[in-house]
């Protein structure tokens, strides 16, 4: 039976590389590119069809940062497909990033240097804003829109006798200390990205608790540091080009510098081939690249409090009720 796979944020970076890899792996796939920008979505679809001329590639308009768009897109998905095997929740933003250069140079000469390059801990802040639904934009895009999408698509992913998978593109930047259960949307802090990614790690655990019995299995991955539009938004592209040789060198010390979208998509691709029952719900699956350029996936335990994950789940359900009422 052909597998139905939906990828959010599929028109560039890691999402597009994943699509390319999935089509190479399985020519029978029915792939749905869920993109907010139709023109960029069309360009991605054409590029994929150039290298896989017989592939089934559909396009879906979806802005995960908008409640109305998520609800409309979910209706469209339900009309087009009768099940979804893989839901890759990959779209993500990091608006107005700011690097703390002092902290960077201090970190360079500390024992924490490897961890700093792997996680950006203490280096990065962002300035977030409210979207038209009155939600914090980073929370709405990276977490809540995807949560709402899963809820809307439950008839397609929670089916008796059938297993479906949800895979979150999280980050090594996800940190417990950046997240507050009292401030889910991170209205008051300056690390909305880290907070939203930590929340996705917790949500994945809660989804497994609530939905495994209905055939839905959730996993989280970290793609490592990848050169994409997102990272080009942190520092100008000429800077990245200048330091690229240094980055290849750093890869010898930290295998988290995957650098290319193809390498970054390693764990996403690896999960596609795994039996969900064999996966650890408390693990984050990391895409890693060795100094010699070999890609591999490694499971690392997440620092997650199960009780807090449950509270997050209930709070998201409550927020869902509120936004549905408004709609
Ligand atoms: N690059 C890195 O080093 C790392 C990236 N990640 C995560 O990987 C994921 C992919 O990012 P990456 O490939 O790096 O960056 P890109 O910017 O290349 O890709 C992000 C994708 O998400 C889409 N997107 C953004 N906002 C929305 C929205 N509201 N609705 C629908 N689609 C949206 C973008 O579409 P559009 O073209 O319209 O903007 C784009 O296709 C993100 O979740 C990111 O947080 C995690 C760790 C490290
Ligand atoms: C010499 C050199 C490589 C300098 C770059 C320093 C920083 C700009 C990077 C060091 C660690 C990086 C990192 C990210 C962005 C760029 C750095 C801060 C991410 C936050 C990008 C998005 C993620 O989800 C995780 C990444 C962790 C590492």
TrEMBL record:
Keywords: Endoplasmic reticulum, Glycoprotein, Lipid biosynthesis, Lipid metabolism, Membrane, NAD, NADP, Oxidoreductase, Steroid biosynthesis, Transmembrane, Transmembrane helix. It is an enzyme of class 1 (oxidoreductase). It comes from the Eukaryota. Pfam families: adh_short (PF00106). Pathway: Steroid biosynthesis; estrogen biosynthesis; Steroid biosynthesis; zymosterol biosynthesis; zymosterol from lanosterol: step 5/6. InterPro entries: 3KSR/17beta-HSD (IPR052834), HSD17B7/Erg27 (IPR042829), NAD(P)-bd_dom_sf (IPR036291), SDR_fam (IPR002347). The keyword Endoplasmic reticulum applies. The keyword Oxidoreductase applies. PANTHER family: 3-KETO-STEROID REDUCTASE, 3-KETO-STEROID REDUCTASE_17-BETA-HYDROXYSTEROID DEHYDROGENASE 7. This is 3-keto-steroid reductase/17-beta-hydroxysteroid dehydrogenase 7.
């Amino acid at each position: 039976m052909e597998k139905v796979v939906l990828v959010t944020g599929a028109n560039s970076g890691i999402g597009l590389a994943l699509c390319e890899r999935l089509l190479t792996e399985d020519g029978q796939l029915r792939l749905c590119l869920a993109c907010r920008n139709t023109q960029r979505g069309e360009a991605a679809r054409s590029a994929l069809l150039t290298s896989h001329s017989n592939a089934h590639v559909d396009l879906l308009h979806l802005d995960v940062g908008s409640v109305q768009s998520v609800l409309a897109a979910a209706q469209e998905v339900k009309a087009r497909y009768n099940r979804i095997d893989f839901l890759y929740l990959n779209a993500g933003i990091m608006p107005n990033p700011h690097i703390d250069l002092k902290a960077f140079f201090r970190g360079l000469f500390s024992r924490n240097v490897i961890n700093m390059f792997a996680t950006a801990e203490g280096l990065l802040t962002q300035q977030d804003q409210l979207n038209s639904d009155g939600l914090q934009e980073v929370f709405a895009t990276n977490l809540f829109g995807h949560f709402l999408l899963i809820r809307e698509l439950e008839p397609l992913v929670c089916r008796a006798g059938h297993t479906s998978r949800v895979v979150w593109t999280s980050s090594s930047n996800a940190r417990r200390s950046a997240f507050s259960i009292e401030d889910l949307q991170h209205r008051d802090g300056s690390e909305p990205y880290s907070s939203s990614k930590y929340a996705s790690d917790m949500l994945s655990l809660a989804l497994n608790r609530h939905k495994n019995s209905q055939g839905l299995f959730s996993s989280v991955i970290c793609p490592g540091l990848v050169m994409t539009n997102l990272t080009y938004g942190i520092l100008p592209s000429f800077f990245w080009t200048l330091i690229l040789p240094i980055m290849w060198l750093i890869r010898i010390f930290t295998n988290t510098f995957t650098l290319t979208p193809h390498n970054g998509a390693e764990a996403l691709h690896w999960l596609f081939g795994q039996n969900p029952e064999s996966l650890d719900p408390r693990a984050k699956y990391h895409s890693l690249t060795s100094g010699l350029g070999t890609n591999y996936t490694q499971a690392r335990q997440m620092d997650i409090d199960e009780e807090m994950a449950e509270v997050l789940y209930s709070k998201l359900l409550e927020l869902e009720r509120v936004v549905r009422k408004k709609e």
